[in-house]
Amino acid sequence: MVHFDFQISSGDSEDVDWSDEDEMCSLVSPVAYHVPVITPPTCELSSSGSKISDRFLEMGYPLKVVFRAIEEHGENDEEAILNAILTYLALETLPGEDNHVTSDPHLSDSASTYIEDLSDMNSILESQGQNKYFETMNLLEDMGFSYDEAFAAINRCGCETPIDELVEFIDAANMAKADDLQGLNDIEQLRYGKKQKLDRDERWTYSVKNMQLMIGFGVPNSGMKTVDREIPAAGKGPPYFYYENVAYTPKGVWENMSRFLYEIEPEFVDSMHFSAAARKRGYIHNLPIDGRFPLLPIPPFTIQEALPLTNKWWPKWDQRTKLNCILIRHGSAEDTKKIKEELDKSGPDPPEHVRKYVLEQCRRYNFVWVGKNKVAPLDPDEIEVIMGYSKYHTRGGGISTTARYQCLGNSFQVDTVAYHLSVLKKLFPNGIKVLSLFSGIGGAEVALHKLGIPLKFVVSVESSETCRNILQSWWEQSNQKGKLIHIFDVRDVTLGKLKELMDMTEGFDLVIGGSPCNNLAGRNRYTRDGLYGDQSSLFFDYFRILDLVKKITVYRAYA
DNA sequence: GTGATAATGACGGCGGGG
DNA sequence: CCCCGCCGTCATTATCAC
Fold first, then answer.
1. Does any domain span residue A91?
2. Which nucleotide's C1' sits nearest to the alpha carbon of A331?
3. DSSP letter string over A158-216?
4. A55 in a domain, yes or no?
5. Could you tell me if residue A137 is inside a domain?
6. pLDDT single digits (tens) A244-297
7. N-to-C CA span, chain A
8. Is the CB of A409 under 7 A from strand B?
9. Which domain holds residue A54?
10. Domain total in chain A
């Protein structure tokens, strides 16, 4: 979204000289218009705007192979990149994984669909003669202004406004912004103020600290002064977006995701600050952070408060007050049996080695005490409440117990997400239109609903029938006034489909979702392949769809 | 009895933090 | 250095639907 790259698409445009970007950028002509690109957005901090990925994508190479090759070899050595791509394709694998790339129709389709989408966008813009807006955008960007500065100026003043006046407007806005930044302390300057002057490592210094504390840009009662941050221009809404995934990934994954999601700094938050269970997650979003408030009532913060019946049987030497992360599987009956046998054998005061064994098992499987020397895994009902859903949210309607554990373990902690989304309440008092990707059991929807934000429109993309049924029945039971639309597959969410949907909804206010963590999660012993793994590479569909929504939003504003 | 689905047992390693 | 914790996957067995 950062760059609307300049490209002439009339008949004789095939021989455009791509090697000289600066020359190209100056070639603003009345017939020119811009083509959106899929490259990771580059902001002021990046050394160069990468368009090389587009070239390889246009040649038809699969999306994840292209990105992987560029990641391995940098953006400058074109020959090395091409060799790498050809090598990966010949081997049919990427380094560090053994899945077949060329036999994976999804990503290939995704890339080619995207390219088709771009051509489609070209013809839309061309046929409807919306060139004036892009001309002006071009001109302002060529003058060195960011996309967002140009967007704001044109939005406010209109695209027929003389350039001089637009420039004046931008300068005035920037002066006001600079004034606002006075008086911040060092850490806040690092986070919000002078960020754009710092290099990448320095920028991520705060995230490292963020990762350690796991309180993100603040949690309730943390005593942190909340000041609104400065989001890189390309990342700003509309629409707002909110992306989630596991905090602890193989190295470099969050940096990579942040690079795609407009260089926005992730916030890492442990849901232990919102509930009785730990849940370390990272969130990349462009929401304001000033004025957040928690859902009420505040849920129980300890195991003992959340599950009071366990108190009677809880031994003093088990000092846990917080549960570990809720996972998709529960501990086995066999393990709880062994624990009981060991404790029965050792009497009322078990020796150190027995305590250690029992505690280790309890921590590993999140067991709680339900009788004399008896531990048990959490029930699905209990998990529902701890995760912030109402009891029985996932129960019944043909859903097996195993499936309940599975989809609950994959879901948002509602109180945590609601805290981040709470700033939307005053922005959308009359309701919100949501594109919900990888919706699962509807954590985002439940959070917004609990915040009292009316759901005017929800387009939910979710591949699991079980999860779609759960969301649908919640929708029907929770007195919704709006409309819920289900889509099964992110691959079906093309430019054409999005245009159709956004004509119906008159745009989306929020694009929200967490893409699959299978290949990132620490629990995975077999296929922790990273962001390019079979499931986790669906991240690129999140980015693709978000980026298309941003482009269509701009287009609609000037259509 | 048979195929489908559900439940269960067995299975290391990486990265962060002290 | 050691410690802890992690939105999991695969193979097998048990149970279910017919």
1. yes
2. B8
3. -TTS-HHHHHHHHHHHHHHHHHHHTT--HHHIIIIIGGGGS-HHHHTHHHHHHHHHTBT
4. yes
5. yes
6. 999 999 999 999 999 999 999 999 999 999 999 999 999 999 999 999 999 999
7. 18
8. no
9. 4-174
10. 2
